[in-house]
Design brief:
There is one protein chain. This protein is mostly helical. Helices cover about 75% and strands about 0% of the residues. It has 8 helices and no strands. α2 crosses α4, α2 packs across α5 and α6 crosses α8.
């Protein structure tokens, strides 16, 4: 079941405000990035994403279930963006190339979105590792503990931790490669 769909149903059918908050939290950055590709301005895209969520919150449209919740949500956002472009075509807008500060905002949003997607992929791959591998990777990379500190927590020698860490990295790399993970840094 799609989490976005279940959160939206909770909000729409039962009035659970946390369902809408979850949707906004989960989809806001990706929707802004997508809408920026349509309207060419990150600030406008932020406003249009907000309009999309306001529409969900006020009109509570029904998902026809023909695709994923994300597809449905992005379609609503796209329609709002097209309406915006249609109505604003009579007004002149500043070109993104003429305002480098807007371009840097767009680049930083894109970089943040890519970083977040990478984190999700790593966490998903880590779930498939042996518990011992997950633990050593978590303590070393996410908690930023030294090998000595990790050894104390895991009740192993530093040498065992180094060996375990090496094997865990290889196993994680294999998992990520099976998911076609791109190692290129943004």
């Amino acid at each position: 079941m799609d989490n976005g769909a279940s959160s939206y149903r909770r909000f729409r059918d039962k009035g659970d405000e946390s369902g809408l908050a979850e949707i906004i939290s989960d989809y806001n950055d990706g929707l802004i990035f997508y809408l920026t590709s349509i309207v060419g301005n990150i600030h406008t895209a932020e406003d249009l994403a907000e309009d999309t969520f306001v529409l969900l919150g006020t009109k509570k449209p029904r998902d026809k279930g023909k695709g994923s919740f994300k597809t449905w949500l992005y379609t609503i956002g796209r329609n709002i963006a097209i309406d915006y472009l249609r109505h604003s075509s009579k007004y002149s807008e500043t070109n993104l190339d003429d305002t480098p500060e807007l371009a840097s905002d767009e680049e930083s949003l894109e970089a943040a979105y890519i970083r977040e997607e990478r984190k999700i992929a790593v966490h998903r791959a880590m779930r498939n590792l042996k518990p011992e591998y997950r633990q050593v990777l978590w303590l070393t990379y996410f908690e930023e503990l030294s090998n000595k500190e990790t050894a104390i927590i895991m009740k192993k020698s530093v040498h065992n931790i180094e060996t375990l860490l090496s094997r865990a990295r290889k196993s994680l790399r294999s998992q990520l490669e099976m998911e076609d993970f791109d190692y290129e840094k943004p």
